[in-house]
Design brief:
The chain is an all-beta fold. 3% of the residues lie in helices and 45% in strands. The protein contains 4 helices and 48 strands. It has a 23-stranded antiparallel sheet that branches. A hairpin with a 5-residue loop joins strand 44 and strand 45. The radius of gyration is 31 Å and the shape is globular.
C-alpha cells in the first residue's frame, strides 16, 4: 500500500471560559458574588484517508466534528432571582464525506461525492420550574427595577438535523477557435430537521371551565379538543389594568389609577413605585399542547453547464447556466419551487499575457435556498395556547395595608415577599378568561395548520456584478481592487394584506390574520384592498352603515401607538357592495372573487381585486470597493491586508432580522401587515441603512519566521482590525403583535451610528522537534492587546412590548449567549500545544 494510502488525523480539545457579572439589582448578583463563569468545552477532531488507485483515479474520505458542552450557569438571562434560570448545553456537528476524482483522458475529468452532515442542540435546565417574568415594575417609577425573571427557565428548543448529499461533475477540454473547457454537474440534497419545543415546568391538563364555572373560550375548538389536553406554559406577571383596564387606568399614578381594572378576581400585590397594592394576573403567552415535535424534510436539485473559453493567452470568457429546484415538506403539507434559472457570465483580460495582470468583470444570479424553518412554520401544524389569563394563588387574610376590604392578595413567603413558586395553579378555579369578574376575552387557541402559497410563487434571488483588476509585483506582492454591486431582486415572505387597525377590528369580532406566502412587491395583487374609514368619537360614519341600516362588523376603536396616544377609530365597510347584510341583518357570505354578487368583501381576502396591495418593493442593495495587498509566504514573511469601503441600504435584511433577532427565513414580520391610514408601521418599508451596514473595515495580518538565531523557526504574527460602527435605530412595538423591536419608528439610523472599534492581536508559535517524524508546536495568541472595551451597540427598543416603557432605552445592552455582548470583547489569550507527525 506504500505510495497509495495516505492519512491525516487531528484532535483539538479546547476550553473557553468567560466571566460575566449578573445584573446588580438581581439576586443572581448575590448568589454568584458579583461574577459567574461561563465555560464551553469542545473536542474538535478531523481525519482524512486518501487511496490513490493509480495516477488517474483517487478515492478519499474525511470526517470532522466538534462535540461540545457547557457548564450549568445562567445563559438565557443575567437578571433573575434564583438559579432556576440555569441550564447546560450539549451540542455539536459531525460531517462525513467520500469523494472520487478521476481522469478518463488527459482532457476529460470526472468527480463525484457523497456527504452526510449531522448537528444537534440540547438544553437542560437546572430545575424544571414554570417560568414567570415579572413585568409589574416597568413604569420607570422610583424603586422599580424593570422586567426581570422571577423564576424558571422558560422556552426550550432542542433540535436534531442531518443532511445527505450527492454530487457529480465532469469537464472536457477541446480546441475550437481557442481552448474550451466545457463542464457540467448535478447536486442532490436531502435535509431532515426535527424541531422540538417545550417550556420548563412540566405539563398540566387545560381545565374545561373557568373560575366561575363558564366556558373559557376554547370549548368550541374540537380539532383537536382543547379541554383536558396536556399543555405547558410560559408566564408573565402583569398589572391587571394593562390587560383589562378600568376607566381611570394608567401605569403612572400621576396620570391615573394603576389599580383601575374590571378584573375583580385578580388578587392584589405590593409593587415598588405604588403607594398601595395593585391587582395582578398571570398571562400565559404560549403553551404547546400537541406532541411538541415538528418534523420537516426537503429535497433540493441543482444542475449546471459552463464553458470557459480561452481566446489565446489574453482573453478568457466564461458563460454558464444553473437550474435549481427545491421541495419543502412539513408535517401537514409540501411546496415545490421549480424552474429557477440563473445565468452567469464574465471575462478576464490579461493585457500582456504573462499572468501577472488581470482585468475582469462577472455577473451572476444566485438563488436563495430556504432553510427548513419555513417548512416548520408554514407547512406544519402546531397547537398552542396563546392567551390564557390566570389569577395568581391568593389568600384573604394577612394582606398588606391598602388592600381593599374583601379583596384577596397574592401568597407570600415568610419574609412577606411574593411567593412566585406557588403563584401558578393551572386549574379551573384560577382561569380568568370569560369568567364573571375576570378577563372578558376567551383563551386564544392557535391551531396552526400551515400557510397557503401565492399561485406562481418563485424562488428568491440576488443579482451580483463584480468588476476588478489585479497585478502581481516582485517577490509575490499582489495588489488588487474590485467593485461589487449586489442587489436583492425577489423575496419570499408571508403577507397578511391588512393594516394594524384592521387586525384589531378583526380581533374585536373574533377574527384573525390569515397569512399567505408570496413574492411581495409594489405591483403584486393577491389581496382585496380594504376601504378604511377613519373617524373620531363613538358614532359610526354613514359610510360604515349599509343600505339596510346595519353597521360593518369590523370596527377598531381607540387605535393607539405604544406611547398611549389615542389616534382615533377606524371602520371597514364592504368594498364591493353598500349592502353587506340580508333583510334579517345577517352578514352576507364571503365572495370567492370581486366579480361575484350576493356576497361581501371587507379587505384582506385572498383574491386579487385589480389594484396593488400597497406593499413597497423589498430592497437590499450592497455596494462595496475592496482594496487588497497580499503576499504569499516567501523570504520568511507573509502579508494579508485589505480595506473595504461599503454601504448596505434597503428595507429588507434577508433571512435573519438583526434588529430584533427574528430568525424566520421567508416568514418574517416585515410584510405581514400594510401601512394603513394611521401609519402604525412607522418607516418599516422605508429605505435606509440596514443595521449591518459598516462603511469601513480594515484588516492587516502579517507573519514572520526567524531563521538565523537560536530561536530559529519561531513564528511571529500580528493583526490589526478596524471597523466603523453600525447604524442605530429607534424600534417600537405595534398594537397587533405587541412585540418589542418590530417597527423602525423614525427611519433607519435615526440614532446615529455606533463607535468605531479597533483591535490589535499577536501570535507566537515555536516548534520543538522530537525526531524526524514528530514535533511539538507551542502556541500563544493574544487578542485585543490594548484591552479596548468600546461600546458597539445600545438598547434600541423604546419599549419592552406594546405600551410597556423601556427604562433601558439607549443604554448599553447585552444579549444572551457566549460572545454576544454589545461591547468590544476585552483582552483574552490562548495557549495551545499541538503534536504534529
Amino acid at each position: 500500500m506504500k505510495n497509495h494510502l495516505f492519512y491525516f488525523g487531528n484532535f483539538n480539545p479546547s476550553v473557553n471560559n468567560q466571566y460575566v457579572a449578573p445584573a446588580i439589582t438581581s439576586n443572581l448578583f448575590s448568589l454568584y458574588n458579583g461574577q459567574l463563569q461561563r465555560s464551553k468545552t469542545s473536542y474538535d477532531y478531523a481525519a482524512k484517508l486518501t487511496f490513490k488507485i493509480n495516477d488517474r483515479h483517487t478515492v478519499e474520505s474525511s470526517v470532522f466534528g466538534d462535540p461540545s458542552h457547557t457548564n450549568n450557569v445562567p445563559w438565557s438571562t443575567l437578571n433573575a432571582e434564583d438559579k432556576t434560570v440555569n441550564s447546560k448545553w450539549d451540542y455539536g456537528t459531525r460531517n462525513w464525506a467520500v469523494r472520487y476524482d478521476g481522469a478518463l483522458t488527459n482532457t476529460w475529468l470526472i468527480d463525484g461525492a457523497f456527504t452526510w452532515s449531522w448537528n444537534h442542540f440540547t438544553e437542560t435546565p437546572l430545575a424544571d420550574v414554570t417560568q414567570i417574568v415579572d413585568n409589574t415594575q416597568t413604569a420607570a417609577l422610583a424603586n422599580q427595577r424593570g422586567a426581570f425573571n422571577a423564576q424558571g427557565f422558560g422556552f426550550l428548543e432542542p433540535y436534531d438535523g442531518n443532511t445527505r448529499s450527492l454530487s457529480f461533475d465532469t469537464s472536457k477540454t477541446l480546441r475550437f477557435l481557442g481552448s474550451h473547457t466545457f463542464s457540467m454537474g448535478y447536486t442532490w440534497q436531502y435535509p431532515i430537521y426535527n424541531d422540538i419545543t417545550s417550556f420548563s415546568g412540566g405539563k398540566f391538563a387545560l381545565p374545561n371551565a373557568n373560575a366561575t364555572g363558564g366556558d373559557p373560550g376554547y370549548l368550541n375548538a374540537t380539532n383537536p379538543t382543547v379541554a383536558g389536553a396536556m399543555s405547558n406554559a410560559a408566564l408573565s406577571l402583569q398589572l391587571a389594568g394593562t390587560v383589562d383596564p378600568g376607566p381611570n387606568f394608567n401605569v403612572d399614578p400621576a396620570l391615573g389609577d394603576p389599580a383601575s381594572t374590571t378584573c375583580t378576581l385578580c388578587p392584589y400585590m405590593v409593587v415598588p413605585g405604588y403607594t398601595t397594592p395593585v391587582p395582578v394576573l398571570l398571562l400565559q403567552s404560549r403553551g404547546r399542547f400537541d406532541s411538541g415535535i415538528t418534523r420537516s424534510t426537503g429535497k433540493y436539485h441543482a444542475a449546471y453547464i459552463n464553458d470557459s473559453w480561452a481566446i489565446g493567452k489574453y482573453i478568457t470568457a466564461n458563460v454558464g447556466l444553473r437550474w435549481e429546484q427545491q421541495r419543502l415538506v412539513g408535517n401537514q403539507a409540501s411546496k415545490l419551487f421549480n424552474d429557477m434559472w440563473s445565468p452567469r457570465f464574465g471575462f478576464i483580460v490579461d493585457p500582456k499575457g504573462d499572468r501577472k495582470t488581470k482585468i475582469y468583470a462577472n455577473f451572476g444570479r444566485y438563488a436563495f435556498i430556504l432553510p427548513l424553518d419555513a417548512a416548520v412554520r408554514a407547512l406544519s401544524s402546531e397547537d398552542d395556547v396563546l392567551g390564557a389569563h390566570w389569577a395568581p394563588d391568593s389568600k384573604t387574610t394577612g394582606c398588606p395595608a391598602g388592600t381593599p376590604s374583601g379583596a384577596s392578595c397574592v401568597v407570600t413567603d415568610s419574609s412577606g415577599n411574593p411567593d412566585y413558586g406557588n403563584f401558578f395553579k393551572p386549574d379551573a378555579g384560577h382561569l380568568l378568561n370569560n369568567a364573571v369578574g375576570g378577563i372578558g376575552t376567551g383563551v386564544n387557541v392557535g391551531l396552526s395548520g400551515g400557510e397557503p402559497f401565492q399561485p406562481g410563487i418563485k424562488m428568491e434571488y440576488t443579482d451580483e456584478f463584480v468588476v476588478g483588476a489585479q497585478h502581481e509585483f516582485r517577490d509575490g506582492i499582489v495588489l488588487s481592487a474590485r467593485y461589487i454591486d449586489r442587489r436583492l431582486k425577489r423575496v419570499i415572505e408571508d403577507e397578511g394584506g391588512i393594516s394594524v387597525e384592521q387586525f384589531n377590528a378583526l380581533a374585536a369580532n373574533g377574527g384573525g390574520l390569515n397569512y399567505f406566502i408570496g413574492n411581495p412587491n409594489s405591483k403584486s395583487d393577491i389581496f382585496v384592498n380594504p376601504n378604511e374609514v377613519v373617524f373620531q368619537g363613538t358614532t359610526l360614519p354613514a359610510a360604515c352603515i349599509d343600505a339596510n341600516g346595519n353597521p360593518t362588523p369590523y370596527v377598531a376603536m381607540d387605535v393607539s401607538d405604544t406611547f398611549g396616544n389615542n389616534l382615533g377609530n377606524a371602520c371597514f365597510p364592504a368594498v364591493n357592495t353598500n349592502t353587506w347584510t340580508d333583510s334579517s341583518g345577517n352578514l352576507l357570505p364571503t365572495c370567492a372573487t370581486v366579480k361575484d354578487t350576493g356576497c361581501a368583501l371587507f379587505g384582506g381576502e385572498f383574491t386579487p381585486d385589480g389594484k396593488p396591495d400597497t406593499y413597497k418593493d423589498p430592497k437590499r442593495v450592497y455596494q462595496a470597493v475592496e482594496i487588497e495587498v497580499n503576499k504569499g509566504f516567501g523570504h520568511n514573511w507573509a502579508l494579508v491586508a485589505n480595506w473595504r469601503i461599503a454601504r448596505l441600504n434597503g428595507n429588507y435584511e434577508g433571512a435573519f432580522r438583526n434588529d430584533n433577532n427574528q430568525a424566520d427565513p421567508g416568514i418574517s414580520a416585515l410584510f405581514d401587515l400594510t401601512e394603513g391610514a394611521f401609519g402604525l408601521l412607522g418607516h418599516q418599508q422605508g429605505i435606509g441603512p440596514l443595521n449591518t451596514d459598516r462603511r469601513h473595515v480594515v484588516n492587516i495580518y502579517t507573519t514572520f519566521v526567524l531563521d538565523k538565531t537560536r530561536l530559529k523557526n519561531l513564528v511571529l504574527g500580528g493583526g490589526l482590525r478596524i471597523q466603523s460602527g453600525v447604524p442605530l435605530t429607534t424600534l417600537v412595538a405595534q398594537q397587533a403583535y405587541q412585540n418589542a423591536g418590530e417597527v423602525p419608528l423614525n427611519g433607519r439610523g435615526d440614532l446615529g451610528r455606533a463607535a468605531t472599534t479597533a483591535g490589535l492581536d499577536a501570535h507566537l508559535e515555536y516548534p520543538w522537534k522530537l525526531g524526524e517524524r514528530f514535533s511539538l508546536r507551542f502556541g500563544f495568541d493574544a487578542f485585543n492587546i490594548a484591552n479596548r472595551k468600546t461600546q458597539t451597540l445600545l438598547n434600541q427598543n423604546d419599549d419592552q412590548g406594546f405600551a410597556i416603557p423601556n427604562p433601558d432605552f439607549k443604554l448599553p445592552y447585552a444579549t444572551t449567549g457566549m460572545n454576544n455582548y454589545f461591547f468590544q470583547a476585552p483582552f483574552s489569550s490562548r495557549l495551545s500545544l499541538r503534536l504534529v507527525f
